[in-house]
Amino acid sequence: MIQVENLTKRYGQHVAVDNISFTVKPGEILGFLGPNGAGKTTTMNILTGYISATEGRALVNGVDILEEPEEVKKMIGYLPEFPPLYGEMTVMEYLDFVSDIKQVSGQQKKQSMEKIMDLVKIGDVRGRLIKNLSKGYKQRVGLAQAMIGNPQVLILDEPTVGLDPKQIIEIRNLISSLGKEHTIILSSHILPEVSTVCERVIIINKGRIVASDTLENLSKGLGEETKLIIRVAGPEKHVIKVISEVHGVKFVESQGSKEKDTVDIVVESSPDIDIRKPLFYALSRASYPILMMRTMGLTLEDIFLQVITEEKEAR
Amino acid sequence: MLAVIKKELRSYFTSMTGYIFVASFLFFTGLFFTLNNLLGASPDFNRVLASILFIFLLAVPILTMRLMAEETKQKTDQLLLTSPITLTSIIVGKYLAAVIVFVGTLAFTIIYPLIMSTMGKLAWSEILGGYIGFFLFGSALIAVGLFISTITENQVVAAVATFTTLLILWLIDAIIQGLPTDKTAGIIFAVLLAAGIAAIIYFATRNIYVAGGILGAGIIAIVAGYIVNPEIYTGFIGKVLEWFSLYSRYEDFELGVLSLSPIVYYITFSSAFVFLSIRMLEKKRWS
Asked: Does A310 fall in a domain?
């Protein structure tokens, strides 16, 4: 669906995007992850034809954005970082204008406008001037704008920035449901957003791709050890001693006591051995009951930081 | 393009700019009509049109400062540039919207010759000539304003720069009078001109070879021109600057004469600046 080949963008001496390549399959929701200034927005601006790449090319459905910009733009709906809204228009006037420039006409125009307003829940502010709307509504009008013309590809640059937690969840759900019919690229520096919505993640730092995989594979590849956190009722020293003797345990560390007469302990084991059962029996034999046990999977934050640090070390 | 025109027209009249333009334009035409034709008892309406040309200095910046600058500042240009419409239809749409507001306002002033026609016979063909000239002249200046608005993202800067440019165009004939006319000055000016063009090309393309080539070709042309006929450099500065003398070409229209060359000149001038605006927008995407 989307093919990016050796894309580079230079601003004078500064390299904003450095030779990146990736593909997006139809119907996929791809997360674009990176710290501020990593080159996410620049890449999206190139994909949507807002700016041109210095080198490399981008194809949507096999059509080059440079060679047939109008064709590609028809296939893409773009919500930039700052929604491009005209404050002096009402929501209806605005969507009407967007429909016109996206060449949606006649009966179809009205229908699609109604449908989209319904989807993003802005029907109740349709007659209001955009400049008087709250940030959340503005963001949703921006999203509505991107959806007009029913483009196959949606490119959303930080779509939940500035929204309150309830709105964030609404927008996320909306994006997930849109993913059934659209190919979506979504950028964010907010990690949970990407982990809840996206199937695949590209981590970008200083203009270069540092990782590209599914979330599962990323955490598998990076978190070689399996970590458990357990809470045991018993004296710290003895508990640690018992756990250390269990086969397969590689590392034990106390986290101190968070509940009276208990101790929290982090246990690391080799990935190929499941130590939960042996751990249970060993502590049970020693009469130290386990009050809580959970795995410490790597969060996206961990992955993100790890990938970026690894990259720094590699240089 | 129609969508862009509609949107621009709406934004003229949902903000103050449209009303300020119409009001100030009609105020000055009314004032000069009263002074010249009513109190001065003159049937010559083209004099009124000619004497209010100065109003463009103020009215054109009002009309054009917002056009592109505001889009860039509010980042709404992202919507336009990522939509399946061409840069040409964006710019031409904006230009036509500004021209429509101008022509619409100008249409109101027909009432003045109509008032006069109730008192006697008027030379309508002459008045028509005057109107055509006035329209072409205004449209050319609007194109200049549009171009300046594509350069900056600050409306105030766009307005001041447009005003200054129009003022220079206004004064250009007087400036030409004061410039040296000898051959040496002409040659120096020609070299500077070639260097200037080469510099613009360099900043646009960042290609030193192309820019250098153009400078070289320019200098060869200047030398060749000198060998063939050194007299072409006498008064050369004036000749070049005269290309930009919009006001001197208005004289025919003031007399009600419709002659082809100023018509072609104004249309070419407008087209050139509309074209430059499109290129400017295109260039922004490459920088």
From this structure: no
Which residues are CB-contacts of A116 (< 8 A; sequence separation ≥ 6)? A95, A144, A147, A148
Total of domains in chain A: 2
Q: pTM for the whole thing? A: 0.83
- Under a CB-based contact definition with an 8 Å cutoff, are residues A193 and A259 in contact? no
Contact B16/A at CB under 8 A: no
Residue from A299, A184, A282 nearest A232 by CA = A282
| pLDDT for the residue numbered A297 | 61
The reply to whether B149 and B208 lie within a common domain is no
- Cα separation, B66 vs B17, whole angstroms: 9
- Give the residue from B17, B81, B82, B202 with the most A CB atoms within 10 Å of its CB, the best one to mutate: B82
Q: Note whether A244 and A138 are same-domain residues.
A: no
- Beta pairing class for A29-33 and A183-188: parallel
**Measured in whole angstroms, how far is the alpha carbon of residue A147 from the centre of its chain?**
19
Phi, psi of A288 (to 5 degrees): -115, 95
Cα first-last separation, chain B: 26
Radius of gyration of chain B (CA): 21
Establish if B136 touches chain A: CB-CB under 8 angstroms. no
How large a percentage of chain A has pLDDT more than 70?
93
Contact flag B285-A71 (C-beta cutoff 8 Å): no
Here the CATH number for the domain that contains residue A77 is 3.40.50.300
Domain of A56, in residue numbers: 2-221
Shared domain for A171 and A253, answered yes or no, is: no
Domain count of chain B? Answer: 2
Residues A183, A38 share a domain: yes
Q: Inform me whether the C-beta atom of residue B14 falls under 8 Å from chain A C-beta atoms.
A: yes
Instruction: Name every residue whose Cβ is closer than 8 Å to that of residue A88 and which is 6 or more positions away in sequence.
Output: A129, A130, A131, B11, B14, B15
Residue A237 pLDDT more than 80? yes
Cβ–Cβ below 8 Å for B84 and A71 = yes
pLDDT tens digit at each of 287 positions of chain B = 889 999 999 999 988 899 999 999 999 999 999 998 889 888 888 888 888 888 899 999 999 999 999 999 999 999 999 999 999 999 999 999 999 999 999 999 999 999 888 888 888 888 888 899 999 999 999 999 999 999 998 999 999 999 999 999 988 888 888 888 888 888 888 899 899 989 988 877 778 888 899 899 998 988 898 888 888 888 888 888 888 888 888 888 887 788 888 999 999 999 999 999 999 888 887 76
The answer as to whether A300 is a domain residue is: no
| B42 found inside a domain | yes
User: CB of A270 within 8 A of CB of A246?
Assistant: no
B114 and B159 assigned to the same domain: yes
Which among A74, A82, A84 has the least Cβ separation from residue B84?
A: A74
Same domain, A230 and A216: no
Q: How far apart are CA B275 and CA A31, in angstroms?
A: 40
CATH number reported for the structural domain that contains residue A277 in this entry: 3.30.70.100
Instruction: ipTM value, please give it.
Output: 0.85
pLDDT at A90: 93
Q: Which DSSP state fits A150? A: -
Identify whether A179 is part of a domain: yes
- Which residue in B52, B66, B157, B149 sits closest to B105, CA to CA? B52
Q: Does pLDDT of A299 surpass 70? A: no
The answer to the question of residue A174 being in a domain is yes
